[in-house]
């Protein structure tokens, strides 16, 4: 593809002629790669097509950069990266490239996880593919999803609610005892159970929480803007006054879509 070849040529020239690009290493690039991935995630959550395109380019730059460093060190190049990815995709899609039958997405995922276990001569453990550095909510979801891939899951998804209620009761009991260590453990168990319920009902808990985060920011910013307009700091407002404004912000949300990041919030006009 001409565009990809152009990108590789630009990368070669930058690595040769730019002092900043020339000094970069895998270690120095890693923090920036994480930041770029989060920026892409943010653009995806906002459904901002222009930003998605831009951030995809930034992530692609890092992929090409790491491949260039690998080539310089005689370890691998971008062709090796592409071929290895293609080989993996073909191997894990036997329903497309082989004789295996898969009539729905659930079967595809189950086959995918089973094939991953068979890789590396069967020495790979089911949960070994979950990166340790993943954010906790995403990690919990991936752990549960991988266990499901080998059949370790609830027979009926509604059965998970008994577990959620059980963990909530245990958390409440430890909070009553004011045992911080035990309460922390039980809070983790409760959150894990709630994430499990979300997975079973095909809801993404990370997206759901981020939606709530943005909703809270929108409503709280409405409170702040109102306090600025009337010259009364939030710290001097009663909780009842703030609750009234909070409900007003909620009503405004039903009249207009929640503003995306960067747009004006109600009361900013």
What is this structure's SSE topology?
Layout: H1 2-17, H2 19-23, H3 26-46, H4 49-72, H5 78-91, H6 94-97, H7 105-118, H8 136-149, H9 160-177, H10 180-200, H11 205-230, H12 239-255
Helix pairs in contact: 1-4, 3-4, 8-10, 9-10, 11-12
Describe this structure in words.
The protein has 269 residues and is mainly alpha-helical. The chain has helices spanning 2-17, 19-23, 26-46, 49-72, 78-91, 94-97, 105-118, 136-149, 160-177, 180-200, 205-230, 239-255. Helix 3 (26-46) runs antiparallel to helix 4 (49-72), helix 8 crosses helix 10 and helix 9 runs antiparallel to helix 10 (180-200). The longest helix has 26 residues, at 205-230. It starts with a helix and ends in a 14-residue tail after the last helix. Mean pLDDT is 89; it is low at 259-269.
